[in-house]
Amino acid sequence: MKALIFDGQLTLQQVPDPVPKKGEALIRVRYSSICNTDLEIIQGYMGYKGILGHEFAGEVVSKESKFFGKDVVGEINIACGKCYLCKTGRKTHCINRTVMGIFEHPGCFAGYIVLPEANLHVIPANVDMPTAALTEPLAAALEIFEQTKIKPTDNVFIFGAGKLGLLIAQVFRLSGCEYTLYDINPWKVEFAKGLGLSAALPEAIGADQKAEICVDCTGNPKGIETALSHLYPCGKLILKTTVANPAKLNLNKIVMNEFNIIGSRCGVFEPALSLLSQKLIDVEPMITKVFPFDELVEAFQFAAQPDTIKALIRH
């Protein structure tokens, strides 16, 4: 099969088809999506080398699998199921885990992938594959609501109107919270408004204006500083994107104001698929361009542009 390999540079190469073990399924990838994490990996994040990609939708083609013939999406963390964290309900933090396309497990920018059947979820019949390919980031957005209690009376500031910030804003809109999505890029602010979201440039925030919850989706230390400066005492700062470079934080300010800082990453797929099936979350306008598989290297260049929301790959 053909796959996108990163070994210091991005190249499409012919590699052997993967072979599923017992309890695993072979999946023909139909659509995949480029994530910010993919862009960070090719800049050296995680030190990963191999087949990239972790957002996908595909069809199970291994006849031995109970999912044979089904269209599926897959959770990216491959857990051992035996360690302390797995046994206490924290499989996404499994001590022995691998992570598809990120850490010691081949990714989905390929003709086929192999995943444990336990990781698979059937795509609802009324959800098309391009939409389903964005299940993983939507699940990550929903994880905020799994981790912390959100009240309808909470006011929320979301920083960073990229793909994840847009999804998080859509989820908060459903919650009934008063929220605003901020970004330094005027184009992204207008794009968010086009989705019917409350959005503005950061300079629109008054110096003394604060929120009960701030969500950082910038992946930038300055974004985190901005979020902290607009948080009420005892408020919650949710860090939703990785910051590849070291960040300095004023710990005294955090302690004195009793801020709650919450790291947040992967989420549960079933609620995400349900929202997509009910048409409560709209991802279609976020797909800036669909590339054929053979143009994956060019798609990475496109995905890195500031006016790109989401680059999708048709396999």
Can you walk me through this structure?
26% of the residues lie in helices and 28% in strands. It is an alpha/beta fold. The chain has two domains: 165 residues, Quinone Oxidoreductase, Chain A, domain 1, CATH 3.90.180; 123 residues, NAD(P)-binding Rossmann-like Domain (Rossmann fold, 3-Layer(aba) Sandwich).
Brief rundown of the structure:
With 315 residues, this protein is an alpha/beta fold. 26% of the residues lie in helices and 28% in strands.
Pattern of helices and strands: EEEHEEEEHEEEEHHEHEHEEHEHEHEHE
* General form: globular
Low-confidence stretches: none
End-to-end distance = 11 Å
Mean pLDDT: 95
Q: What's the domain count?
A: 2
Question: Strand share of the residues?
Answer: 25-35%
By DSSP, the count of extended strands is: 19
Biggest sheet features:
7 strands, mixed
Total helices: the number is: 10
Based on helices, strands and strand pairing, what is the structural class? alpha/beta
CATH class division of the largest domain: Alpha Beta
Q: Kindly state the percentage of residues in helix.
A: 25-40%
Name of the CATH homologous superfamily of the largest domain = Medium-chain alcohol dehydrogenases, catalytic domain
Rg (C-alpha, Å): 19 Å
Give the name of the CATH architecture of the largest domain. Answer: Alpha-Beta Complex
CATH topology of the largest domain: Quinone Oxidoreductase, Chain A, domain 1
